[in-house]
Amino acid sequence: xxxxGRAGVCVRCGCRRRRMGPSGGVCxxxxxxxxxxxxxxxELLSYGLVVLGAASALLLCFIPMPYGRYSSRRFGxxxxxxxxxxxxxxxxxxxxxxxxxxxxxxxxxxxxRVLLGCFVVHYTHRALIFPLLIRQGKPTPFFTFVLALLxxxxxxxxxxxxLTNYAKYHSDWLKDPRFITGGMFEYVSGANFFGEIxxxxxxxxxxxxxxxxxxxxCTLFILGSRAKQHHQWYLEKFEDYPKNRKIVxxxxx
Length: 253
Fold this sequence. Notes:
With about 250 residues, the protein is mainly α. It contains eight helices and four strands; from the N terminus they run E-E-H-H-E-H-H-H-E-H-H-H.
């Protein structure tokens, strides 16, 4: 079709050609890449996420993660804690929302909506609410900020794309017995980490996708290492710290 001018009017018939806005172009891109090749890419990225988590856990045995009380200028210029936290976590909220807005093969199915909603609610709190609750937080090194930002982009794509375009569930999925409703520092040093690990393994159990399982395992590796770092710090700083208290998993580790 031949067009002329900014309005996109056809020279031959005079009809107006519909122009695609920026958001339409992005959504069209996701429609074009959808298929077996992207599904395989998601699987490979999921395996990569598990490897990344395991490698991070190994590395953190030798190099403490430079954040919070362990913050250091050796890892780049320091960013305000609130700003860094909000910006680094935001992709895990915006990427899935953007993918959901573009639609997908399974984006309107209720199980997918509810499961993606659980992920979005978590990162709404993590990116928009939690930063406002930080009081006198220590600055975040730029290197740590970039790693967290890249991770959130990576995982936001994995979970968002899986749940909007590929993960398929039967209509009564949410009635499955796994969806049931039912406190921890007396038992473990990293009770907050244990809660998040439990949360994402529950998410993986609910989704039953390789992407959600990869995220849960990666979370276990990374947060388990952080909990160990905290546990050792408590033992060194407080002489009366309970020696029988576990690190992150009650009665186990």
